[in-house]
Amino acid sequence: IDYSWHLSCTLKEAINDCRQNECGKTVVPITKIVGGVQASAGEWPWQGLFLKISALGARIPICGATLISQKWVLTAAHCTVGITHTSLQIDFGVLDYAANEASAKAFAVEKIIDHEAYNNINLLNDISLIKLAGVVTYTDYIIPACLPTADISAGELCWITGWGSTEGEISTDARNILREASVPVLNNTQCSSWYSTFNIFSTNLCAGYQAGGVDSCQGDSGGPLVCADNSSKFYLHGITSWGDWLCLEQPGVYTRVSEYQNWISTTQAEN
């Protein structure tokens, strides 16, 4: 494991601040494989597991989420709209959510802020900010993703992660272990031709393959699509929103995070 990016942290007390400045930097190297495979512990340290806690204490996975700071998380509005925050929890540092992992940390939710113009019919503005009740301490397994300073171009290879179904909507095969896949970003015009009866907005990002077969699916909603720059720093460019019903025949559609930078910063400042 290469700890060289920690060298600027000269005091133990400063390590957490140093990691905050190193958003999107993983300690565990990413396995460069195209197609859905199991992830390794620490590969995607910003990945959150969004859970509902039942009256009997059962942990029910709802969606994915992405850590962007010590107090804030991004997810899809269709995951959060109409849900009371007191019954929710977000776990970070998780690989297998059925296991008792030492790296995993659970956080209650203080506040949910859905985009005020979210449309539940066409999923326009499918983005939500979650304020955590506690403050996240960064570790090798829990690090925020960076927010993009520019848009991502078609053709760039990015990564999607989640605990969702691997066989389509009719399957009940949601897995305990986090999975990963690499997918290329697609041109929105091309994507619109494949989804001719649905709206692809400028605030959407499409990623995947025309032939399908590699995609996010049910249970992955709200999770990250991240793309690395030349220094291997990962930026959150997409939030898993919707796609082909069976997750097999079309690319996936994501909320384009670069379009919401002002909304994110303004909402955080106001709350």
UniProtKB/TrEMBL annotation:
GO terms for molecular function: serine-type endopeptidase activity. This is Peptidase S1 domain-containing protein. SUPFAM superfamilies: Trypsin-like serine proteases (SSF50494). GO terms for biological process: proteolysis. The lineage of its organism: Eukaryota, Metazoa, Chordata, Tunicata, Ascidiacea. It comes from Ciona savignyi (Pacific transparent sea squirt). It comes from the Eukaryota. Residues 33-269 form the Peptidase S1 domain. InterPro entries: Peptidase_S1_PA, Peptidase_S1_PA_chymotrypsin, Peptidase_S1A, Trypsin_dom, TRYPSIN_HIS, TRYPSIN_SER. Keywords: Disulfide bond, Hydrolase, Protease, Serine protease. The keyword Hydrolase applies.
